[in-house]
Amino acid sequence: MTDKLQALAADLEELARRKRENRLAYYAPYQKQREFHALGLKHRERLFLAGNQLGKTWAGGMEMAAHLTGDYPEWWEGKRFAGPVRAWAAGVTGESTRDNPQRILLGVPGQWGTGAIPRDRLDQTRTGRGLPDAVDTAFVKHRSGGLSQLSFKAYEKGREKWQGETLDAVWLDEEPPPDIYAEALARITARAGLVYLTCTPLLGMSEVIRKYLQGESIDRAHVRMELDDALHIAPAERQRIIDGYPEHEREARVRGIPMLGSGRVFPVAESAISEAAFAMPRHFARIVGMDFGWDHPTAAAWLAWDRDTDIIHIYDCYRVREATPVIHAAAIKARGAWIPVAWPHDGLQHDKQSGEPLAEAYRKLGVRMLPARAEFAGGGHGVEAGIMEMLDRMQTGRLKVAGHLAEWFDEFRLYHRKDGRIVKEHDDLMSATRYALMMLRKARTEAEAVMRRGVVQYAETESRSFLEV
Contact 101/197 with Cβ under 8 angstroms? Predict the structure, then answer.
């Protein structure tokens, strides 16, 4: 029996050794990590936003190891290089590069080959100067027979240290300055390579982060990973982790959402306004806010108003670009043709196809457009006044948003000021919501809308006059 136990112990130790020295072979990514890798097939620039200790750096290291060795897992759907590659892995400082991407890729000092790069694929390493245990370059055996070359860099060295080289891949661990990011892109241009960034967005809505979240491009894509996506963290531990972070950092450290900053229009945590979706009671009054667009999306936001508590629930939204009024009208009516629609001043502009005002074009398509453009009860339609109304409701718990409305929350996160002025980009659903709030007095329950429509139709038949809806 003792011999069997010893043999079992030896087998277990051997298995543990194999896992330590070939972690790439045992890499089983979570869904968000796998999505991130897959995006590399079509996008040369990728961003992996995630909270702390959720697995973003591990995913970054595993991808780099796959490119360096050519040992792509069977499930791999991302970009593949056919032969050896030249690559960089970088961090903010020399110390952070050593302690993060270097450690993930090579293992801890004295135990090279226990990181993402298998031990039997490490050919040699060259140490750096001036920083204990730092590696300057590693050479990795590629399955084709050649050698891949990986160098470690730091943002703090400045742009000049990033110039000149031609690379296949660059991994940026934590957010770089814009000039460093630009140099990283320049390094992979000649070889049609890739750049990917893994970070916790503690710098807020910075220029590099905004490049991904706001600037739509076929070249770029991003994935965001939250605490609940990290299966290695027990559910019972998650609240303890959340409570351990300062409140203003929780969104970034737990959910990978850019930290609140002075530039945010709505300095409100998402958790304060998000709610689980539920069936809206029939006595809640409804209204839709609509923002017209073509090159930027046409958007609509559906609001349900509980008059008893004065709480507004945003329960649906719609955002589509480069589609005609016929398409938008069908989508709006499908969600309730009886719900009144608030619209902005450009609804008075003429549609290029029909030659009639946009609002009238939608009205003829059966959309229940309000008779006049959106404005406050006392007159006026200022953007800042509308923003203050939204913010006041958010801060007092009188505006809630269904948590599944990803497009609405995407805009909410990006809505910001520059030099004190609101940036009018990627704000279609924010504008639609604001128009609906301005005209909240026109919100109706279905019973009220049907009854009022009947009165209007009767009046039109008798006197051919139009009564305000």
Answer: no
Domain spanning 270-456, CATH class: alpha beta
**Cβ atoms < 10 Å from Cβ of 403:** 15
User: Beta strands of 9-159 (E only): which ranges?
Assistant: 45-50, 86-91, 122-127, 135-141, 147-154
Class of domain 2-255: alpha beta
Q: What is the pLDDT of residue 463?
A: 38
Does the structure show a pLDDT above 70 at 467?
no
What's the token pair of residue 219? 């070249």
Question: If we measure between CA atoms, which residue out of 78, 81, 63 comes closest to residue 24?
Answer: 63
CB 214 within 8 A of CB 426: yes
Distance, in Å, from the CA atom of 45 to the CA atom of 66, rounded to the nearest integer, reads 17
Indicate if the alpha-carbon torsion angle 275, 278, 282, 286 is positive or negative: positive
Closest to 365 measured CA to CA, from 322, 328, 316, 339: 328
> With 0-12 CB in 10 A as exposed, 13-18 as middle and 19+ as buried, what is 165?
middle
pLDDT by residue (tens digit) across 354-377? 567 899 999 999 999 999 999 998
Scanning 154-223, the segments in alpha helix (DSSP H) are: 178-188, 207-213
The tens digit of pLDDT for each residue in 287-305 reads 999 999 988 899 999 999 9
**Beta carbons of 202 and 252 less than 8 angstroms apart:** yes
At residue 454, the pLDDT reads: 61
C-alpha span between 69 and 354 (Å, rounded): 60
Distances (CA, A) of 43 to 66, 111, 212, 332: 17, 35, 12, 33
The per-residue pLDDT for 466 is 31
Using the CB atoms, write b or e for 404-413: b if 16+ within 10 Å.
ebeebbbbbb
* pLDDT at position 402 over 80: yes
Q: Are the beta carbons of 112 and 89 closer than 8 angstroms?
A: no
Enter the tokens of residue 299: 């958007």
Residue 7 has pLDDT above 50, yes or no: yes
> Which value, to the nearest 10 degrees, does the dihedral of the CA atoms of residues 209, 212, 214, 217 take?
160
Supply angle C-alpha 170, 173, 177, rounded to 5.
Answer: 85
Could you count the other beta carbons within 10 Å of the beta carbon of residue 212? Answer: 17
Catalytically annotated residues: 174
Kindly report, residue by residue over 328-354, the tens digit of the pLDDT. Answer: 999 999 999 999 999 998 866 765 565
pLDDT at 425 (0 to 100): 80
Q: Per-domain residue ranges for the chain?
A: 2-255, 270-456
395's torsion region: left (phi>0), alpha (psi -120 to 50) or beta? alpha
